[in-house]
Amino acid sequence: MHGGGRTSLGYGKGAVGVAGEWRVGNLPEERDRLVGRQAQRAELARLVRRSRLVTVTGVGGVGKTRLAQSVAGELQPSFADGAWWVELSPLCDGRALPFALAEALPLADQTTRPMLEVVAEYLAGREILLVWDTCEHLVDECRETVSALLAEAPNLRILATSRRPLVLPAEEVVALDPLPVPATDDGPAAGEGDDAVVLLAERAAETVPGFTVTTANRRDLVALCRRLEGLPLALELAAARLRDMSLAELNQRLDDRYAVLGTTDGVDYGADPPWHQALRTAIGWSHQLCTPHERLAWARLSVFAGTFDMAAARRVCADERLPAARIPHLLASLVQDSIVEWTPTGAGERYRMLDTIREYGAHWLRGVGEEQTVRRRHRDHYLDLARTADASWIGPHQIIWYERTVAEHANLRAALDFCLAEQDGPSALELGGALWFLWSACGFAKEGRHYLDRALALDVSPGPVWAKAVWSCGRAAIILGDTETGLRLAGVFRKAMAEETGETDGTAVFAAAFLHGCSLSMQGRQQQAAEVLDAVPRTRPGRGRYDAEWFAVSITRAFVYVHLGRFADAMAVTEELVTESARCGETWARAYGDYVRAMAALGLGRAEEAAAHARTALDGKRRLHDSLGIALVIDVLAGAAVAAGRAHAAAWLLGIADQVWHTLGSPQMGSPELLAARKACEDQARCLIGDDAYRTAFHIGSTVAPEAGIAAASRGADCPAPPSSLPGPAE
Asked: Which domain holds residue 298?
């Protein structure tokens, strides 16, 4: 019964709008003001309100993403179920598109259905805005997915950015031009048609403190804006260079660049005239002004998907041509020149490239014949990271590894895609197997199954790496409710362990028992599950390849005992588990141990003790953003509340849990015992307070901001308002 279900529920910092309404969603924070675009902004907002699919098109660097972000932020409060940002640029395989949608949404489905079907079902009854950023490299996949989603979800709106339209009947297209430039060199800097000048001046002031537009420099500013055709990305790259040269010198350099450029850089941006030359000029000119080491770093950094950290940059970019000691300085220089963006996060400093900049670097990487070499180094770095995280997962740094691995998800996905594209079965198997905790504990079981199935089909060579991939795939299948596959892979794993791999690791015995016993338990075959689990020792073995599985077996054994009515035995097992977890500083399994301990205490009639254990479990699950664990624990909290006579609180808690279960796809994981326990809790609460009061309290819980409701539940709060004073929901 033991897995993860990470998902952002969409409420957090900045969730309250100016009018006090909840702003539901995950839109990126606007880091600077949108210059100009008033007419386009108003037109785009009008079209999104009217049409189900609106695509903002234009050349790379024209500001499509920035405009979409601003309009989505304006419209966000008007969508009952929020506005959600879906970043598509890190995807290199269109088959990952449904997983990217689920990852962006508050959705952590735990079923075996196709992910596109799951996403469509989730959106079907919701009033929601999806913003798909950077579709041009996946136009065919986007077209098919949009058609499927719009057919199933009548209140869905999609706002896309792409260099070319998706070409669908429902699509409205807004073609975005560069910013207007002044008609003359005279006049005030804020006059009509001066948006390009205003943007350049604002970015220049960030580079050169105190910079302002004056009569003396206005002519040069306007000339620069004209030379760069008002293209925002080109203007921002130019502004970064004002740190090193004057406006007059910068204009002269660009004149020289135009004279020699032509089409010699050979980069295809997918852009149409008339301003594609301005983009090539600005990026090529910035490239020309970089030192040879900076150019090489730029090219090598282009292999990263999404964001990356300094350690990754050193490992992937450094060699005898580019010493590791120089990487921090080179990265700082590229940040100063607006080639790389610096992004501080809660997990540390991270970096990223804009798509157009990355494409230029990727072209040069191919040109110098290094693409395969650097991509293999990228693969090797993330394989090492996965190995280290796997070995460190059971320990005091688990939360840190959770945050780091989730932050690197796009790069891990890119590394797996590279392995599969290269037909590199051994690396795909090892990476997919080592990432078991990402699939099982961090809420990406469906994606893990997708990659592991492909890797296992690619390489059937028996051995320890193959066996671990089988085990990892079996774990993911169980979490998705596919217990038949769990049982089948348990047998395959046992055979591999005994006959083919020569596996002597004592932890492998627990791995096989977990796959077998948990599959039986989830089928409701508790006595058979107990026999399988009781056949392995109670004592934790030494560390090994399957170190987490002693904890998994202990949790499942206690869970089975609860459902066999052996509450005291379950309590004894969980106490051992919690003690061992505390000893090694573990959070994930400890929280599940506290959850099952709460179930056992409830079975023993100790409602207050059950609530205390459940609140401890909820604290752990919140730290790991484990939605599956959160939903399970709140169900138990509701059971403890009704057992203590707090029926209003129980109904409210069931409403909170209901919100989370809706993101998981399979209520109570399909477990007969868990479904029966929830039904019994609901029936008892209704009996104590009546149907009307129950519906009202449930409605309060099911409509509260999820993060706020979960936080209140962890504090042991009661229903926040007297149910009798509130109107009930419509029948």
From this structure: 294-354+364-370
Q: CA dihedral in degrees (317, 321, 324, 330; nearest 10)?
A: -70
CB 110 within 8 A of CB 481: yes
What single-letter DSSP state applies at residue 496?
Answer: I
Determine the Cα–Cα distance for residues 58 and 297; give it in Å rounded to an integer. 28
* Adjacent-strand bridge partners of 162: 57
**pTM for this one?**
0.83
Q: What does the DSSP 8-state code read for residue 53?
A: E
Range list of H helices, 546-626: 549-563, 567-584, 588-603, 607-623
Distance between CA atoms of residues 661 and 5, nearest Å: 10
**Measured CA angle at 640 (ends 639, 644), to 5 deg:** 115
307 lies in the same domain as 268: no
Return all residues near 661 (Cβ < 8 A) that are at least 6 apart.
631, 667, 668
* Average model confidence (pLDDT) across the chain: 86
Is residue 235 within 8 Å of 225, Cβ to Cβ? yes
Listed in sequence order, the DSSP H helices in 393-482 are 398-407, 409-421, 425-434, 436-440, 445-458, 464-479
Shared domain for 329 and 412, answered yes or no, is: no
Beta-bridge partner residues of 85: 131
Distance between terminal CA atoms of the chain?
35
Q: 577-636: per-residue pLDDT in tens? A: 999 999 999 999 999 999 999 999 999 999 999 999 999 999 999 988 888 889 999 999
- The packing angle between helices 232-241 and 215-227, to 10°, is 130
Side chain identity at residue 625, one-letter code: H
